[in-house]
Amino acid sequence: MKIAVIGTGYVGLVSGVCFSELGFKVVCIDNDASKIAELRKGNVLIYEPGLDKLMQKNVQAGRLKFTTDVNGCIENADIVFIAVGTPSKSDGSADLSYVYTAVNDISSCINSNAVLVIKSTVPVGTTSCIKKFLQDRGVDVDVAFNPEFLKEGAAVEDFMHPDRVIIGVESKKARKILAQVYRPLYAFNVPIVFTSPESAELSKYASNAFLAMKVAFINEIADLCEFCGANVNDVALAMGLDKRIGDKFLQAGPGYGGSCFPKDTSALQDFAHKNGVDLSLVKETIKSNNNRRIKMVEKILLACSNSVKGKNISILGVTFKANTDDMRDSPSIGIINALLERGANIRIYDPSFSEQAKQIFPHLKFSSNVYDNCNGADAVIILTDWSEFRALNLRELDRRVKNPLLIDLRNIYTLSEMSASGFNYYSVGRTFEKLRYTEKIATK
């Protein structure tokens, strides 16, 4: 079976490489000739652990190729996956222009016996609209929807050992072919769930919105913990041990970011609003997450005696999460810009050495290692939970900084170890104004 994947961004490249690892002949297609040239050289253009070696392995085995030639590859493909971006428009809705451009490009050459599979995240009803779009052009092929649930930093593992595979189909033929594609995963007892395209489309948005809601919820609980003296880590542990809730996405911090949660919650809210449905929980999740960055800036200012003007601030980690170089909607952007507006001198170290970050902050200094970045710092702020930051030599750090102030917005360290470190330590949901709390209780 021959597979064609249109789009070599995050989802397309990971999917193409992993399908070839499952044993299929795969060609990845992109209209960006420079990107294809780099991929042919074996250069992976995204930061994803293990992807480079897997890609090189399957290229050498002859199962994986990269090209800009749409016509020459699509006509021989049994399955065509579209995995292009669907970014947010200014009104929050999903921009489907890349999807329809790809569909239009293949309409003149797709094999009539092939199945077209949309892997891009799209609003409910898009798969049916694409089917009609093709029919209006005299093209009659089966169209299905197969959402991705890949976590950046663990995408290869998520593809090869997923929690579930959701496939939205309307025909027996499409169901049969896609069952064969994912047959290798049956050995790992992966649930393969077939639904209507509409249910599959909504399942993607609903999943991301619910996870985003968990992040926003635990962050609001963290605010309450700071007020009343509770420890948000203990609260999250107690919640997560409940099998009905689970422990994932209950880590308090500066809020969610990345390529999925921000745009998918906005697109879901926009779709619901246009159809007269009030998704108040999703709406409040978006609002809460936007406010989160403001609260983190307030926390930093409080730790810095209400002023960062002229102070040297060492930022550790700027990507939206660890094990990626992705800066899309990263909480660090708003936080750093707010500190710059208040006169702070910012230096940055991120283990990914993200080129995206350097483009966003072209005038800031990026260090090559964590300790140099902290030289003479008035405050050190952890914004991303890279494993490297969990193993800092605190004595060496203390020797480098001007002022022993560590602001940990990811709760990497325990309160007990930091109390013995000599640092003034601020974290999220684990410090509180006890006097204020005690006074409020006494007045009741």
How does this structure look, described?
This protein is an alpha/beta fold and 444 residues long. It folds into two domains: 2-195, NAD(P)-binding Rossmann-like Domain (Rossmann fold), CATH 3.40.50.720; 207-426, Rossmann fold (3-Layer(aba) Sandwich), CATH 3.40.50. Helix content is 44%, strand content 13%. The chain has 19 helices and 14 strands. Strand 4 (79-82), helix 5 and strand 5 form a beta-alpha-beta unit. Helix 9 packs parallel to helix 12 (280-303) and helix 12 packs across helix 13. It is globular and about 70 Å long.
Q: In percent, how much strand structure appears in the residues?
A: 5-15%
Looking at the overall shape, the CATH architecture of the largest domain is 3-Layer(aba) Sandwich
Structural class: alpha/beta
| CATH fold-level assignment of the largest domain | Rossmann fold
Helix content: 40-55%
Please count the helical segments: 19
Task: Please give a handful of descriptors for the protein shown.
single chain, 44% helix, 13% strand, six-stranded parallel beta sheet, Rossmann fold, 2 domains, 444 residues, alpha/beta
Short description:
This protein is an alpha/beta fold and 444 residues long. The protein is built from 19 helices and 14 strands. The protein has helices at 10-21, 33-40, 51-60, 70-74, 97-106, 126-135, 155-160, 172-181, 197-228, 232-240, 261-274, 280-303, 331-341, 355-360, 370-373, 387-390, 394-400, 415-419, 434-442, and strands at residues 2-6, 25-29, 64-67, 79-82, 115-118, 142-145, 165-168, 192-195, 312-316, 345-349, 365-366, 379-382, 405-408, 424-426.
